């Protein structure tokens, strides 16, 4: 095990990436446990960070840590390997805090515990998958160990041409897969190109840009897309949501503070409408004044 770690991690220069990977996962799990305990209003646990009436989200601390870790990784000389790992750990902690509130940044609204907040968990899962593949030595849209053989009669320009062509083909296939609404297949397929071929061949998801452009309503392809979405895709989505809720908590429940805020806003709206409604009601309830007889001279 130690030889494998030395060969695949240390000698390959992936120690900072391993530090980032572990720090990212640990920080995400700890953060989710913390926010779920805060949401449950556990007495002995911490509360939200407040500055007066301002709630400071943990994405703020994440941005600061990412800045510190990123600048430190650039500024530290190459011979200080330990400091590189430390900077990567700090960057991983900050990245987890930022991606945990990715939905808040995307929607510019506090949607952490709503269904839109699941986008944060999706972003974290994608980051973990991509980083894990990089840690295993899988390169995105490229060849592993593409080096010219001195004994072979293969020139370097030919190798570069083959690499560029494969890169362009993989990127085109990834774009087509994403246009078909297959986000996970498109992203992971950059590391495992055979997934891109499967994603391009298979029918697109209904509602995706490709389906809107290419599938006429009621056509055979549209019916096949709807059938596969209901038959195969939705059970997978339910399983994914179950895993997300098991790790990160339910996102379809309104938290107490948001429910209280909604009631307060509704009360304020009713108070603002009340004078107008009363005046309008009074004017409508007044009996019509009798018309005065007109004098004719």
Question: Strand percentage, roughly?
Answer: under 5%
Give, in order, the helices and strands: HHEEHHHHHHHHHH
Radius of gyration: 29 Å
In order across it, which strands form the biggest sheet?
1-2
Q: Approximately how much helix is present in the residues?
A: 55-70%
Q: Which structural class should the secondary elements be placed in?
A: mainly alpha
Notable traits:
mainly alpha, single chain, 297 residues
Topology:
Blueprint: H1 2-10, H2 15-39, E1 50-51, E2 54-55, H3 58-75, H4 81-99, H5 102-107, H6 118-135, H7 156-179, H8 183-188, H9 193-201, H10 209-214, H11 220-248, H12 256-285
Antiparallel strand pairs: 1-2
Helix pairs in contact: 2-4, 2-6, 3-4, 7-9
How would you describe this protein?
- The chain has twelve helices and two strands, in the order ααββαααααααααα.
- A two-stranded antiparallel sheet has the order 1-2.
- With 297 residues, the protein is mostly helical.
- The chain has helices at residues 2-10, 15-39, 58-75, 81-99, 102-107, 118-135, 156-179, 183-188, 193-201, 209-214, 220-248, 256-285, and strands at residues 50-51, 54-55.
- Helices cover 67% and strands 1% of the residues.
- The termini are far apart.
